[in-house]
Design brief:
Layout (H helix, E strand, L loop, with lengths): L13 E6 L3 H11 L2 H4 L5 E6 L7 H5 L6 H4 L1 H10 L3 E4 L10 H7 L2 E4 L5 E2 L12 E3 H8 L15 E5 L3 H11 L12 H8 L5 E5 L11 H6 L6 E5 L8 H9 L1 H16 L11 E6 L2 E8 L7 E11 L5 E10 L3 E4 L3 E2 L8 E2 L4 E2 L1 E2 L2 E3 L5 E7 L2 H4 L7 H15 L12 H10 L7 H20 L18 H10 L6
Parallel strand pairs: 1-2, 1-4, 2-3, 4-20, 6-14, 7-8, 7-14, 8-10, 9-10
Antiparallel strand pairs: 5-15, 11-12, 12-13, 16-17, 18-19, 19-20
Helix pairs in contact: 1-14, 7-8, 11-12, 16-17
The structure holds NADP nicotinamide-adenine-dinucleotide phosphate.
NADP nicotinamide-adenine-dinucleotide phosphate binds next to helix 8.
Length: 488
Amino acid sequence: MSISTPVGSADRPLRVAVIGSGPAGVYAADILTKSEAVKSGELNVSIDLFDRYPAPYGLIRYGVAPDHPRIKGIVNALHKVLDRGDIRFFGNVDYGTDISIEDLRKHYDAIIFATGAIKDADLNIPGIELEGSFGGADFVSWFDGHPDVPREWPLDAKEIAVLGNGNVALDVARMLSKHADDLLVTEIPDNVYAGLKNSPVTDVHVFGRRGPAQVKFTPLELRELSHSKDVDIILYAEDFEFDEESDRQIQTNNQIKTMVGTLTNWIAEQPEDLSELTASRRLHLHFLHSPVEIVDSAETPGKVAGIKFERTELDGTGNARGTGEFIDYPVQAVYRAIGYFGSALPDVEFDHKKGVVTNDGGRVLDADGQHVPGLYATGWIKRGPIGLIGHTKGDALETVTYLLEDRENLPLAEVPAADAVVDLLDGRGVKFTSWEGWLALDAHELALGAAATEAGGSHGVEVKRERVKVVPREDMVNISRDGVSAQV
Ligand code: NAP
């Protein structure tokens, strides 16, 4: 390549690294390849997508509940993008360990961080550190077969509290209360089935700190709770408080109106005498309960024995305030599902309050608030863990638009040859996985599902299994790289 070869030409495409292959990263890569500049032939781009996990799809593989096939179906759209062949996938490559910012800067003209948020937000109440107090996001990682979390999950509680009124709280409560056999149609790994099968749970209580008109979950996800077999839903009349602001919300927001309607119908249909309910498990929905303390066990100090709430009342503005009345529930486990929180990335300025990479519309900023040339962010690590997967598209569009605007001023890569990064990883002994590797692992997981179906089902239950997820990282890597598995 001659020195005068312009960046963005066919001989010297603009080299972009995207860190994270969840929806945010794939959407950003896709939007860039479909931008007017690229479509018109004015700009050539070469995009490499890195992920710390051996498999692509991030949140969809490791954050969406297994019994949500409709959302998991977004994978088909992401698959189509990556299967086109114009975006390279490098799995099992950890930014900060296997590849540094200096490496990326040397090989790419621009870097987009799309690392999402996987940790639980903190809840600072006494007792949060007790045995039996869990983060909802950690539990999600476990039931979704995340390679880096322990295979065993302590499911020994009969009564469980789930804190929060968002969709993650509903996922956690639904997965805790559903019977394991009813999850065998999903892709749950065998260790997750075994754990859930042995759970002695009888009662799962979900607590929101505001009222029924202030919930954060969505209508479909709420209604779905009533589809779990042998699980009764229980509501409490004293929690149905609506102030003027609630009425306004019900009138102006269709989702809230639908959900309040669903909840009101459920409580109207509920027998006055709860002993008439026959299911072996119950899912209780409580409102106007603010968590105050997780109670230590007197018999086995260090273990959760209960949870204390302050009852709240609506304050007319959509918020709730304490009433001074406290109420205890005996539970042996507490799951906080009060939101996710992003993790800091090496060598990138991080806003520790918001849990996001410091940025302005996706342009990464330094400590002085100046744009760091060539660095961008998109998705939850840019705007925080809010919004549905589809919202990430608008986010990616904004980031990519800025990147294209900055095109003439990017700090150019010293070693832009596409093979150089492969040599770098190989030279370091990084066992990276490729798109072809993912296709092999994907086929392997589908074959495990087909084999279980052919054998007449799983665990003595006659059921069609679409896929069985491979969990251990080493197995994922071996199957992806060599088609070798310790599992079959
Ligand atoms: P979320 O929607 O923000 O809900 C967080 C919940 O935690 C809220 O009810 C919040 O109450 C409560 N909370 C926060 N701090 C609290 C505290 N100190 N004490 C008690 N309660 C507290 O977060 P999320 O459930 O983690 O979901 C994140 C995003 O992913 C959302 O956009 C969600 O819709 C999406 N998602 C979607 C699905 C799906 O199936 N469609 C599944 C999972 C996640 P306040 O409202 O009072 O603050």
